Amino acid sequence: ALDTPARIYYKNESVSPSGSHKPNTAIPQAYYNKMEGVHKISTETGAGQWGSALAFACNIFDIDLEVFMVKISYNDKPYRKTMMNTWGAKVHASPSELTDAGRAILSEDPNSPGSLGIAISEAIEIAAKSEETKYSLGSVLNHVLLHQTIIGQEAVKQMEMAGEMPDIVIAPFGGGSNFAGLCFPFLRLNFEEGQNIRCIASEPSSVPKLTRGEFRYDFGDTIGMTPLIPMYTLGHHFVPAPIHAGGLRYHGAGAIVSQLLHDKLIEAKSHDNLEVFEAGLLFAKTEGIIPAPETNHAIASVIAEAKRCKEEGVSKTILFNLSGHGNFDMKAYEEYLSGKLHKFEISDEEIKASLDKLETPKI
Amino acid sequence: ALDTPARIYYKNESVSPSGSHKPNTAIPQAYYNKMEGVHKISTETGAGQWGSALAFACNIFDIDLEVFMVKISYNDKPYRKTMMNTWGAKVHASPSELTDAGRAILSEDPNSPGSLGIAISEAIEIAAKSEETKYSLGSVLNHVLLHQTIIGQEAVKQMEMAGEMPDIVIAPFGGGSNFAGLCFPFLRLNFEEGQNIRCIASEPSSVPKLTRGEFRYDFGDTIGMTPLIPMYTLGHHFVPAPIHAGGLRYHGAGAIVSQLLHDKLIEAKSHDNLEVFEAGLLFAKTEGIIPAPETNHAIASVIAEAKRCKEEGVSKTILFNLSGHGNFDMKAYEEYLSGKLHKFEISDEEIKASLDKLETPKI
């Protein structure tokens, strides 16, 4: 379909029970909680992929789960909510009336569509106020990124089986677990074996923390309840545009990935929401699998690199993470196919205004 | 979860691009049409599994596809429609104003929720009235059943690899392709090698053509446009209850399967719609995969046989067809989980009344 000399591979994480790579960390997190005698976990979810993965994992280990789901996703993707219910989890639309954080947001804006940062605040508050409840996070933090490296470790072996190593490795970027999961094991080959594999993080141009954010300390949540993390951020008050890629609607980036980017050991690209659906549709028609909107960001980067190969007449090997299927995102495809999707532009002034609100330490 | 001495295997057809076994016949049908120079195909779909499989297949071979989707499913499962659109198919809610058959139904009942039989009539009419359009069917007919035997052929080899042969083979029953696909290759072992493998077709108790229908000639569609088929039927005018298993809401049964049942070479069981969702939920919580409602009928039969093994203290090997995932059926799970699903009973009088309307030849 691309008429490119590039050879393109993908790691298919979309066939897990919950439909994405998220069980790679959900299952160990639930397991370690079980070993510690924990009977209840709280968490948040944006697009619902993390929430359903943890619901699946908690179901396996007989742990109660309470999920705060970003309200706009709760309304747009009711099937994800029901999937979590099917595995026994309780799901609340966030902001909710169940927490101080949620009530504070609602008192300012009763119609708040929610954000991942707000939902994190609510889930943390539930855990902080309860003796027996622990909090679990699906991305950003170091242990989550490291759990996900199973993706890249498998991919290294699989590329060896295929008889070639990638020149370029690409993954979508929300908080970092998807990208780190695939790329870290390839970065190890760069660091230890002197290879020169380019690793590209693909983010939405409407949530451009890696490409246009600031590297400084910031909170992981909106209210400011988490420890400070050195990260590329747009500011924890930043309200991402309502794009159909809930998992990427997050203001910040995990610490390790942020440092790697700061040290120019990895790259970041951004793509607007029309470009990513165009990429996703081409992939669906070519390969049969309809990808999650988050995944489409990686595919947009792959297509850009494959086209460059054609222009330059070079044959590169490209690997990307097909991190999830789009079976629960058909409303987004419907809007794209019917021409109802429009671009979200963000100005330098808007980014500066959000960062100016920060009182957290600079690096 | 069942504490049974039975050993249970399943053939997983839910990981195909469109999420079910249907591409097994959609792809060859599209291929042979392409070889014949056909540029346009019409078809119908109940739950949307067949429609999306054929949309996927026609996309591969660059054939236009027009799908008549039973209106109740069109409204309940808009994501299936969008999936078909994503692969380039046109989808109409049936009954539609586009055909004489649709207009006739609508003039009698403007609020008709549609049925598989009506949708078949509409799709056939489109093909019959057009020089260049061919009609394609996803079950019932002999060639479709035979395409699907790839399921059972693979399963025979896989059971050999697992080192045991099933005592009981179970599949859901709509028109017959799901059941025939898995069971025919095992029946061959019965006929040619003298084995004694029980093959069970699982149908909804609200659409009991195999367990309570009549073996006679009937039409495959509601209007009476198809050739007459010797089949177990409830009568082509039969309007199935609005259960959440659109693929099984069909009045008749394929000819080969019907003859096999008549000759007592296979068995049929029926399950009510609450029992099947209870079975599906147990499977989802135990295995992680949320099955399609159609598939849940087979699981209900598996559980019944596994419980019998426990009661009788015998260890049987059971194989069933996990024919599809339930990612597009979460509304049905939602209704089940919230207690809104109720049983549909059907009386002998209702069945008799429907069969009495038939003027087709008896056998």
Task: Set out the fold topology.
The structure is a homodimer of 363-residue chains.
Chain A: E1 7-12, H1 23-35, E2 40-45, H2 49-60, E3 64-70, H3 71-76, H4 78-86, E4 90-94, H5 100-108, H6 116-128, E5 133-135, H7 142-147, H8 149-162, E6 168-172, H9 177-193, E7 198-204, H10 209-212, E8 214-219, E9 228-233, H11 255-262, E10 267-271, H12 273-287, H13 293-312, E11 317-322, H14 330-337, H15 348-356
Parallel strand pairs in A: 1-11, 2-3, 2-5, 3-4, 6-7, 6-11, 7-10
Antiparallel strand pairs in A: 8-9
Helix pairs in contact in A: 1-2, 2-4, 5-6, 8-9, 12-13
CATH topology of the largest domain in chain A: Rossmann fold
- For the record, give the distance between the C-alpha atoms at the N and C termini of chain A, rounded to a whole number: 45 Å
What value does the Rg of chain A take, in angstroms? 19 Å
Poorly predicted spans of chain A:
none
Helix share of residues of chain A? 40-55%
Number of helical segments of chain A? 15
Query: What order do the helices and strands of chain A follow?
Result: EHEHEHHEHHEHHEHEHEEHEHHEHH
Which oligomerization state do the chains in this entry correspond to? Answer: homodimer
Tell me what portion of residues of chain A adopts beta-strand conformation: 15-25%
Number of domains of chain A: 2
Mean pLDDT figure of chain A: 96
Largest interface (C-beta under 8 Å): A-B, 30 and 29 residues
Major beta sheet, strand line-up of chain A:
1-11-6-7-10
What is the molecular shape of chain A? globular
Count every beta strand of chain A, where a strand is a DSSP E run of 2 or more residues: 11
**Structural class by SSE content of chain A:** alpha/beta
Biggest β-sheet description of chain A: 5 strands, parallel
Give the CATH level 1 class of the largest domain in chain A.
Answer: Alpha Beta
Level-2 CATH architecture of the largest domain in chain A: 3-Layer(aba) Sandwich
